[in-house]
Amino acid sequence: MKQLVILSGKGGTGKTSITAAFANLAKNGNPPINAILADADVDAANLELVTRPKRLESHEFIGGEIAVIDPNRCHACGICEQVCRFDAVIPPDSSQAVYRIDPIACDGCAACVYQCPEYAITMQPQKAGNWYHSLSLYGDLYHADLIPAQENSGKLVTVVKQNGRLRALDTGAQLLIVDGPPGIGCPVISAVAGADLGLIVTEPTPAGSHDMERALQTIQHFRIPALVVINKADLNREKTAEIQNYCKEKQVEVLGEVPYDPLISEGMKQGLDIVAYHSTSPASQAIKAIWTKVLERLSLLGGAS
Amino acid sequence: MRMANNNPLKIAVASGKGGTGKTTIATSFALSIINDISESLLFLDCDVEAPNAHLFLKPQLTEEKPVEILIPEVNESLCTHCGECAKVCQFQAIAVLGNKTLVFPQLCHGCGSCTMICPANAIQEIPKSIGVLQKGTAGEIKFARGVMDIGEPMAVPIIRQLKKWVAPLEPQITIIDSPPGTSCPVVESIRGSDFLILVTEPTPFGFHDLKLAHQVAKDLQIPAGVIINRENGAFSELEDYCKEENLPILMRVPFRRNIAEGIAKGRNLIEILPEMSASFQNIYHQITTLVK
Amino acid sequence: MKIALTTTAPNLEAQLDPRFGRCAYVLIVDSETLEFKAHPNPALNSSGGAGIRMAQFVSDLKPDAVISGDFGPNAASALQSAHLPMYLFGDSQSVKDVIERFKSGKLTKV
Questions:
Q1: Which of A60, A139, B279, B291 is the most exposed place for a label (fewest CB within 10 A)?
Q2: Nearest to C67 by CA among C13, C29, C10, C12
Q3: Three-state DSSP class for residue B113
Q4: How far is CA B102 from CA A196, B79, B105, in A?
Q5: Cβ atoms of A139 and A53 closer than 8 Å
Q6: What is the pLDDT along chain A (305 residues), one digit of tens a residue?
């Protein structure tokens, strides 16, 4: 079973739109590929908006733990504030004579728990979100939503991927397609773990190429083979050429270019990926050609294994 | 038009969804108001994983400071392998296996708990670089940002240190460019702001994520307003939501291919549409009224 | 010999679970008698360092060898430190298959 992760560095380059199109091509293309989908962008999960999923299971997700001070045991000695490195301890004020923990600032390190002389502090698990198993137009979809303002340590990403992976093992699926988050931090690191191939979707803007470089370095830092797709490539031909040259220098293959296509947005409003919405549109054709190459690079062109 | 403002004002720009135009709008906002105010203005790029504001503002960077967290170093000759450090560590960053105590720096949050607990005083802390802070100016605009090292997982400590580092500048106005998403790095960036501008696009993805970002604003009790970017006809769900939630729509930027191409060439919004400058100045005025 | 191996279910008929840190179960099996004890993975819910947690857990069970599909870099460092030899499943199809191959020295050592 292979794992493909789609990243971008910069948000808004078209990761999810392209992932959804890939999912469609896996199911309905030639050869059909038995694939499981995982939306690893748990912060702002959009894959479900273009794959029409029917929810099968819903699970609570307990994120990290945060420290909670028992006001009845607190003697206001202030040691917790001294040891906390995350500015998460609120000292007494006119409204309270004891110390309190700011749940948003708390890192969950438990240093205060072990240093409190009154044993007044305990770690309590926090519900951070939910994860789901749904059946989309293109197969099993694992996705999640993080409660806003919660910590996104990558744990929920791991849970989503892990369940996708187990399902793939159970059903003999050939491929796990992971729609990755923007950025390069812990959620991205969790999303790329175990990937056989990382596909970076970029756009020919200064921010797009700048962040593509960072995403590329991140994937390579974790020794995962990387490929690039330039989306909205005709918006700035000069910049697209620059990106092509950069990738050539770094010996990273550019799998293809996708033209800017307003039909993608229209399809999104109908809850559909571009291939479903308009299978012969310029973007659809470009994505189809790219998908064939993706399968080649993953050695999946032999069809069902 | 001179705008008087006595209390320091922090305006954050966020979106939920990446790619809606946060940085484009935030930098254009700064460039629009700088020539019309007498107050000092700081632009803070808190998107430390993938900072882009410098591409629009083109600042001269004059100062740099490494961001470090303290991680444990075990003195094996003093270590008794009792395992207390591993027990207290919440992140599996220190483990006792066989007769060695191993530290995994990339998992360490730098909390110091293991160091404090070690009964043999066998742990000392050493600094580990996780990123860099940079300061400079773009004309009259003071500029600062954080840049996370590749391969580092955590943005939050960098954002936190960035804000501390710029505090002595005491700018009267701060514009904060926050990262995409709605989780801890965003919260760390926008905490303490007086107003939040939510930049969205009128698409299902944009709207879905706007609601999440708005929830963060509500949790942090920060008043908010919306800028709709790339508008191409009305998106009724978005309009209804803003009405129901009393979210003022501060501005609408139309979708036009020439704007997209201009941005792609590295120009900022007010270079492409100079009339936007007056609109941003109006927004500034609106915000100062809304936060009173 | 006592062998630790990672599976998706707590019995000898289970499918092999290829990832060490994120496996569902670890089985400790006597390679001669096939007596076994199954343990659910204590690290399944860890956000990071699952491999390290699993390594600590497995090392406390004192097996003679650890076999899985793949060991992440942290898990590998940890198990090496504990002087636990690591082997890879390779093409093995079942728990019994792995044990036979281990006994005849056919498994790749990490």
A1: A60
A2: C29
A3: helix
A4: 29, 11, 10
A5: no
A6: 899 999 998 888 999 999 999 999 999 998 899 999 999 988 888 899 999 999 999 999 988 889 999 999 999 999 999 999 998 999 999 999 999 999 888 889 999 999 999 999 999 998 889 999 999 999 999 999 988 777 776 888 888 998 998 898 889 999 999 999 888 888 888 898 889 999 999 999 998 999 999 999 988 888 899 999 999 999 999 999 999 999 999 999 999 999 999 999 889 889 999 999 999 999 999 999 999 999 999 998 654 44
> Which residues 15-74 of C have a C-beta within 8 angstroms of A?
15, 17, 19, 22, 24, 44-48, 50, 72
Is the Cβ–Cβ distance between A211 and A11 less than 8 Å?
no
User: Strand order of the sheet with strand A175-179?
Assistant: A54-69, A121-136, A139-146, A35-39, A175-179, A2-7, A197-202, A226-231, A253-258
Whether the upstream peptide bond of residue A92 has omega within 30° of 0, thus cis, is no
Q: What is the C-alpha end-to-end distance of chain C, expressed in Å?
A: 18
List domains and CATH numbers for chain B: 9-67+131-290 (3.40.50.300), 69-129 (3.30.70.20)
ipTM over 0.90: no
Residue C45 and residue A153: Cβ atoms within 8 Å? no
What are the chain A neighbours of C45 within 8 Å (beta carbons)?
Answer: 62, 155
Residue of A nearest to C19 (CA): A194
User: What sign does the dihedral B54-B59-B61-B64 (CA atoms) show?
Assistant: negative
Amino acid C79: pLDDT: 94
Chains touching C (at least 3 CB pairs under 8 A) are A, B
Closest CA to A22 of A303, A286, A299, A302: A286
**Are C52 and C82 in contact, with CB atoms under 8 Å apart?**
no
In this structure, is the dihedral angle defined by the CA atoms of residues B92, B97, B101 and B104, taken in order, positive or negative? negative
Nearest residue, CB atoms, C83 vs list B96, B98, B104 = B98
Going by C-beta distance under 8 Å and a sequence separation of 6 or more, which residues neighbour residue A243? A202, A204, A209, A212, A228, A230, A254
Contact B98 C74 (CB under 8 A): no
Interface of C with B in 29-48 (CB under 8 A): 43, 46-48
Cα separation, C45 vs C67, whole angstroms: 21
Burial of B242-253, coded b for 16+ CB within 10 Å and e otherwise, reads: beeeebeebbeb
The CA-CA-CA angle for residues B81, B86, B90, to 5°, reads 170
Q: Averaged over C100-105, what is the pLDDT? A: 93
d(CA B96, CA C81): 9
With b for 16 or more beta-carbon neighbours within 10 A and e for fewer, the A180-215 pattern comes to bbbbbbbbbbbbbbbbbbbbbbbbbbbbbbbbbbbb
Whether B198 shows a pLDDT value over 50: the answer reads yes
Query: Which pLDDT tens digit goes with each residue over B235-267?
Result: 899 999 999 999 999 999 999 989 988 988 889
Question: How far apart, in whole angstroms, are the C-alpha atoms of residue A181 and residue B194?
Answer: 28
- Residues B216 and A148 sit within 8 Å (Cβ to Cβ): yes
For residue B93, list chain C residues with Cβ-Cβ distance below 8 A. 49
User: CATH assignment of C2-109, given 3.30.420.310, 3.30.420.130, 2.60.120.460, 3.30.1360.70?
Assistant: 3.30.420.130
pLDDT category of residue B16 using cuts at 50, 70 and 90 = confident
A63: closest CA among B184, C21, C57? B184
Q: Which residues pair with B16 in a beta bridge?
A: B181
What pLDDT is recorded for position A126?
86
User: How many whole angstroms separate alpha carbon B129 and alpha carbon B127?
Assistant: 7
And the tokens for C86?
Answer: 């690591």
